[in-house]
Amino acid sequence: MNLCRDHLKVHVDLINSRMNPLADEINTLDNQLSLLIVDEVIDKYRQKLDKWRHECHATVDRFYEEKCQELQQRCVEKVGEKQKKIHQLKLKTNELMREQEATHDDIFDADPLIINKNFVYIEQWTSNELDLSTLSSPYRTLACSQDSWAATTSNNHFLLIDQCPNLCLYDKQLTLLKEYPWEYDSIPDMCWSSTLNSFIIITNKNGVFLMNENLTSLECIQTIEKKRWLSCTCSDSTLFLTTNESGSNIFQFNLLLSFHFMKQWKSSQSCNSDELINNIAYNNETLALIIENRTNDKKRIELRSSSTFDQLWSTTFNASYRLEYWMDRVCVLKYNEWLVIDYGNSRLFHVSKDGQVKSKCSYKPTINNAVLF
Predict the structure, then answer these.
(1) CA angle at residue 282 from 281 to 288, to 5 degrees?
(2) Which of the given ranges, 47-51, 139-143, 268-272, 304-308, has the highest pLDDT on average?
(3) What's the longest Cα–Cα distance across the chain?
(4) CA 216 to chain centre
């Protein structure tokens, strides 16, 4: 009986020895909470919100200025075209008057002035379409590293190129603005997210990274598993990644929810088991895939719905399969068209929005990537 009482006393003393520090911690937390100045906490986070608002306003202002310049440029071009036609008509009229050979067929009727109510709309003139047959020689060049995948991407202001061992940021005149030492695995591909205002960088082994526009901040995206990623692209809400393997898989991640996993398209849905997805590009709710068949050495471009993954069309190219790590790529053009880069044969294919090859050409030196900048 005495032994049980002794044990009970020891047990009670042990509980008390643990309860007293716990009570002290609770009292400490209570004191800290009572000293907390709520207004200071609110002010701290309001400053962050104010900074976010300022950055958003700056982005809107910058977009507005770009569109104003675009409007002015296109109006000047349009007026210039009209003035040129009027000048030609004046020359023709003067010539006829001098020769006194004006006939009924030579006289033209001047159309009345009609002001379009939708004049503010900035039309996309087909005269600005890409024409591979008249592709000019480079107006500016820079040396690129031979030790990288030639990963390249751009936004409206800057061009980011993997110049192993550095990431290099250039302006539209190809002036080097900044270098960032890259200490991780090789970079197969990169893309720009306008939603996050950041570059997305994928690697073979070290995962996926997010880097801001000025190359001052780099973070590894922890919610995305480390795989042998090969290509990437994104919409306003979704990041698409492809794997570097036969029967490539396509993964979808939510940009708006910290890159949480959304969906996986496996082999047979994405491509056949003996095929590899070289490159992927998003545009206007569609995905363009460059798919390489390792059995028959054929390559093709497929256009699919980005939401249902239904195939919209497919076009095959006679592009030989090679063992180099350089991959064929696809670049988004205006008017929902595509530029396919055949690295093995150094050729360019201009593909229309319905999958027709509008033109093709050879190009020297060898091409391994292209971006619309």
Answers:
(1) 55
(2) 304-308
(3) 140
(4) 19
pLDDT digits (tens, 9 = 90+) for 330-343: 989 988 999 998 88
CA atoms within 13 A on the CB side of 370: 22
Structure tokens at 260: 């949480």
- d(C-alpha 366, C-alpha 146), whole Å: 12
CA distances from 140 to 17, 301, 321, 366 (A): 77, 30, 31, 16
Between the alpha carbon of residue 63 and those of residues 55, 57, 122, 130, 252, the distances in Å are 12, 10, 14, 24, 29
CA distances in angstroms from 43 to 91, 160, 218, 257, 357, listed in the order given: 71, 37, 27, 26, 58
DSSP annotation of 365 reads S
Distance CA 202, CA 228 (A): 9
Within 13 Å, how many C-alpha atoms sit on residue 172's CB side?
Answer: 5
How many whole angstroms separate alpha carbon 153 and alpha carbon 201?
10
What does the angle CA 285 – CA 204 – CA 240 come to, to the nearest 5 degrees?
10
User: Distance between CA atoms of 243 and 221, rounded to whole angstroms?
Assistant: 17
Q: How many helices (H) and strands (E) does the chain have?
A: 2, 20
Type and span of the H or E element at 73: helix 38-99
Q: Predicted confidence band at 38 (pLDDT cuts at 50, 70, 90)?
A: confident
Question: Is the pLDDT reported for residue 152 higher than 70?
Answer: yes
Percent of the chain with pLDDT strictly greater than 70: 85
How far apart, in whole angstroms, are the C-alpha atoms of residue 368 and residue 346? 8
Average pLDDT value over all residues in the chain: 82
Question: How crowded is residue 213: how many other Cβ atoms within 10 Å of its Cβ?
Answer: 16
Give the tens place of pLDDT for each residue, 88-111.
878 877 777 776 654 555 544 445
**CA gap 313, 302 in Å, rounded:** 6
Tell me the residue type at 49.
L
Q: Are 152 and 164 in contact (CB under 8 A)?
A: no
